[in-house]
Amino acid sequence: MDVFDKLRILTDAAKYDVSCTSSGVNRRAQAGGIGSSAACGICHSFSADGRCISLLKILMTNVCVYDCKYCVNRRSNDVPRTSFTPCELADLTMNFYRRNYIEGLFLSSGVIRNPDYTCELMIRVLEILRNDYKFFGYIHVKAIPGADSRLVHQLGILGDRMSVNIELPSQKSLKLLAPDKSKHSILTPMGYIRDCIRQNSKDTVRYRHASGFAPAGQSTQMIIGATPDTDFHILNLAEGLYRKYKLKRVFFSAYIPVSENSLLPKVNTRPPLLREHRLYQADWLLRHYGFKAGEILDERHQSFDPYIDPKCNWALNHREYFPVEINRAPYEKLLRVPGIGVKSAKRIVAARKDFLLSFESLKKLGVVLKRAQYFILCSGKIMDGLTVEKDSVIRALMSKNSLNRYYKDFTSGVKYEQLSFL
Amino acid sequence: MIEKSSLIYEYDGSFEGIMCCVFESYYKREIPMDIISSDRFQTTFFPVKEIETDLKKSTRVIKSIPEKIGSSALELLKYAFLTCMPHKELNMLMFLRKGFHYGPPIMYMFKDEHVDKMLKAVRHLKNESHLLKGFIRFSILGGILVSQIGPKNYVLPLIAGHFCRRYAGEHFLIHDKTHNMALVYRPRQYAVVPMCNFKMAEPDSREKHFRKLWELFYTTVEIKDRRNFKYRRSNMPKHYWKYMTEFQKGSYFKDNE
């Protein structure tokens, strides 16, 4: 099998991994080395599905001893199997990197023979890159659950970011679809990596030459829509992971049916992309906007609204919080206004030191007035000519796509839960 | 405020040249209708005044900016000079006139037409240079990394540091087709030089081999059930594709040897 076949098979098998970020660490090469990392992350291309391509996302091998029902690489699936040798993979990475095709390597793997053996192969690739080629670019490496902690530690020293996939949002789903994995086997390495990172941050203070352990932190991902877990449950899980395991990111992946199984959605079911989108919106609210999971969804509202994004939805249900006075409200309060993001909130705070802001200058400053107008005051006044009518508010708070969907569903008689403010 | 005259200033195309136009504008108490670089100059019906670049005058203006408005204003002007904003020179002049009048708060006067245009143009410049850090594609020809780009803004000074650090041990060249300039680097030394008539050499079989591999990776990594061309276009506007390996025609990859 030549390198083209290997690349095709092992890319095809790796593409369902979501994370392709190259962010979180700033570094330049030492003398004689090649490569650097930028903390903001750099996208090198975008594939036809619109997802960013930043890293060479690839598997070491698609041979796997496990039989997880949602996975293309499961043992019982009849697909061609192959492996890269560590040398081949390192060489490919370097040649792509020199041509500026990629920002680095994202190495994952099926479990060949046993977790330890797989880990050792991956360590070998990273060692060739870091030591032989003196590669200082970005490396994201998957920790293989069940591998010896000494090996996981070695991976962390060589890589920039580590991740352990949580795979499915609950222990019950995991038992059903991934009989070889358990919550315990996944959370153990995650906790171990967290402890190593914490220890390392102390060491780097104490010793100047302490080598970094996963300096770009750790992330995880889970599959959405393969199991009946609710949005509320998933969001709470994500929040818990951020808090307990200090993760940098939690990724969600809309389930794309890859096999016919009575436990899973039928093949040809459309992936739940809207739901994934809403989860990411809520995830942003958790990480950058100071929201708590319990504020976005609760026991009585376990799913996201299909038409209105979580932030607008929250605002509509908490009208006692508004209107917010732009020229005086603290930063945290500005952030909660629909149509004001992190950047525009910061600009507002900086700009209002010098003079009072008007609606016109808010627009120039990047605030989406279409949504924000219903929730703000400038120097005690609402916007000129603003009328709060049911129809116009709906139209303003929905995205164009949502609005089209809303009218289509409305005329075709599909019944969704009534929007709370109608 | 002083009324606009029907004069047109002509300057030599340098940053110092614009600063001398600012000096002239204050000295003569007049605001030109436009300021045009001499290399892009076309005959007009309006009277033209040639502004000579005098480093003494420009230094006086440049020195006063951090004192009267703030160092961030000078930085903004330096960036604005690299942008493709229409009438950038006149905008810079108007920005400075207002800056000297209002002082530091000018940086936050988003409502003002000239301030708004300046900030947007600089954002466009920075955004484009960030994108190009990823979208640039090198070909390895005779051991040298060679690349061509067609950016809207003059981004070479902004991306130079990034590539010099990343490929510190390599020799490389990035040609900017729009501005006919090139960034040339050899270990620990770089220069931005004028360069017209640049043509990429024919790739050897090794180069073609990796181009093909990259195209294969690009097409394979897509998830067909999630295809979304519009999303891709908004992330990566089509005018960049012309210079990117993965979007070239078949002959670009064919290995004839």
Automatic annotation (TrEMBL), chain A:
Xref: InterPro entries: Aldolase_TIM (IPR013785), DNA_rSAM_put (IPR023874), Endo/Exo/Phosphatase_dom_1 (IPR051675), Hlx-hairpin-Hlx_DNA-bd_motif (IPR003583), rSAM (IPR007197), rSAM_sf (IPR058240), RuvA_2-like (IPR010994)
This protein's record includes keyword Iron-sulfur: yes
Xref: SUPFAM superfamilies: Radical SAM enzymes, RuvA domain 2-like
Keywords recorded for this protein, A-Z: Iron, Iron-sulfur, Metal-binding, S-adenosyl-L-methionine
Domain Helix-hairpin-helix DNA-binding motif class: 332-351
Name of the protein this chain belongs to: DNA modification/repair radical SAM protein
Organism, scientific name: Clostridium lapidicellarium
TrEMBL record, chain B:
Domain DUF4130: 87-246
Pfam families: DUF4130
Top-level division of the source organism's lineage: Bacteria
Protein name: TIGR03915 family putative DNA repair protein
